[in-house]
Write a structure and sequence with these properties.
InterPro entries: Alkaline_phosphatase_core_sf, DUF1501, TAT_signal. This is DUF1501 domain-containing protein. By secondary structure, this protein is α/β, with parallel strands linked by helices. It is built from 13 helices and 17 strands. It folds into 2 domains: 78 residues, no CATH class; 331 residues, Alkaline Phosphatase, subunit A (3-Layer(aba) Sandwich). The strands form 5 sheets. Strands 1, 4, 5, 6, 7, 8, 11, 12 and 15 form a 9-stranded mixed β-sheet that branches. It has a two-stranded antiparallel sheet with strand order 2-3. The chain starts with 19 loop residues before the first helix and ends in a 14-residue tail after the last strand.
Length: 455
């Protein structure tokens, strides 16, 4: 949270009525005791990028969306597997998807469907969709960096007023569904700049502007923060505070610029475009995320403003019961927003520069259970990719008649991320960093290549 003004009067306040606690929050945007400059620190030697820049929007569907009810329908399967939905044609002859995605069907020439994603694990967590790695096994010292952390490290910010790695993921009661990944062994400086809170928390969006404070007063407080940091430096034995002066200047650049706040202010968007995305539902249900379709529009605005990787979570897809009822509620909302995002990117000539991926942590059981639901099925799942200069308008891979396993072209999570790195202009053959034990590490496992059909 960014809080500039405190309550007036009382002990522990400065002469202008600002409390010490609230002032210190200027540097504590999201990661506990970490200051805003720490979140924004990037590899200075890389310098600034130049727009237009490449970017990725990662749409995570927490809980495991049902692959056979979305983009891999099985009409030849028995009714207890086939389910209630029917396929419809798309703008690409021969490609069919669920009838609940009519708007996306019209954008299919800009999409690629992968029906054979393999390598998922059984537990509910976002790791493989944000890092490519199974973080629960063989994790290196410091942890696996997320894709956004690697991009932050390798490419730095595209401008002074926008962090390269931004998260719109809500914090969820089942915490792993709200995790956009971390900086890992690359450091906290490359962790996501989190803009959303959890249930009962104030969104970071609401406090992203300087309220009734002049730049001069902010700079005075920056001087005070610097003196506080000096004490922290004296007590710091890890070297984490080194080089913070330059990044404090970058932090001030963000605080005094309207670019980030403007990107998140939909009142500044064409009302017709806002309407195109639909109306979301901000309510937290159970342990998942709200159904905020507007965040797909905010993601587009953030990448236009300079963000390189933006992640978001949408709803809760762990449908052990009432699968088809829940699908009729959530899928049309996702259909409208995802199709609007793709159309938006095409109309703004961003479809060659901005990649979109939409997926979950695993698929669902082919057989419908007694509660009209589908259970966890890590053997195979699906993903939709769009734009990014990829060779779209195709389906990659297939499953057997019952949707149980991949029979053609199995695709690993890391292959999807390797494709996204490629789209961002990152040559995976030249990237190597060291974890906290000095061991060489890479964004994806050695030998993993981008999906050849797409690049």
């Amino acid at each position: 949270m960014l809080t500039i003004l405190g309550r007036s009067g009382g002990a522990g306040q400065y002469c202008d009525g600002v409390s010490r606690r609230n002032f210190i929050k200027v540097g504590g945007m999201t990661l506990g005791t970490l200051s805003l400059p720490q979140l924004l620190q990037a590899e200075a030697a890389k310098g600034e990028g130049h727009r237009p820049h490449k970017a990725v929007i990662n749409v995570f569907l927490p809980g495991g969306p049902p692959h056979q009810d979305m983009w891999d329908l099985k009409q030849d399967a028995p009714s207890e597997i086939r389910g209630e939905f029917r396929p419809i044609g798309t703008s690409v002859p021969g490609i069919e998807i669920c009838e609940l995605f009519p708007k996306l069907a019209k954008q299919m020439e800009h999409c690629a469907i992968i029906r054979s994603v393999v390598g998922a694990k059984g537990p509910h967590y976002s790791d493989q969709c944000v890092t490519g790695w199974d973080a629960r096994n063989n994790e290196p010292a410091g942890g696996w960096p997320s894709m956004g952390a690697w991009v932050s490290k390798l490419q730095g910010p595209a401008g002074n007023a926008m962090p390269p790695h931004v998260s719109l993921m809500y914090k969820t009661r089942h915490a792993p569904w709200g995790e956009p990944g971390a900086g890992g062994f690359l450091g906290l400086a490359h962790a996501p700049f989190r803009l959303m809170g959890g249930k009962g928390e104030t969104s970071k969006i609401d406090n992203m502007v300087l309220k009734d404070i002049t730049l001069e007063r902010l700079q005075d407080r920056a001087g005070l923060l610097k003196s506080i940091d000096s004490l922290q430096r004296e007590l710091d034995s890890t070297g984490a505070m080194d080089g913070m002066d330059a990044f404090t200047n970058q932090a001030l650049g963000i605080l005094t610029s309207s670019k980030l706040a403007d990107a998140m202010d939909l009142s500044k968007e064409d009302p017709a475009i806002v309407e195109r995305y639909g109306t979301g539902d901000p309510q937290f249900r159970a342990d998942g995320a709200p159904k905020m379709v507007e965040n797909l529009l905010i993601a587009r605005r953030l990448v236009e403003a300079g963000a390189r990787v933006v992640s978001l979570n949408f709803s809760r897809w762990d449908w052990h019961g009432q699968n088809f009822k829940r699908a009729r509620q959530d899928m049309p909302m996702l259909d409208q927003a995802l199709a609007a995002l793709i159309q938006d990117l095409v109309e703004r000539n961003l479809d060659k520069d901005v990649s979109v991926v939409c997926w979950g942590e695993f698929g669902r059981t082919p057989k419908i259970n007694a509660n009209a639901g589908r259970d966890h099925w890590p053997r195979v799942s699906t993903a939709l990719l769009a734009c990014g200069g990829m060779r779209t308008g195709q389906v990659i891979g297939s499953t057997n008649r019952l949707g149980e396993h991949a029979v053609d072209r199995p695709i690993q999570f890391q292959e999807v991320l390797a494709t996204l790195y490629h789209n961002l202009g990152i040559d995976l053959n030249t990237v190597r960093e060291f974890d906290l034990r000095g061991r060489p590490q890479y964004p994806v496992a050695q030998g993993i290549e981008p999906i050849r059909e797409l690049v």
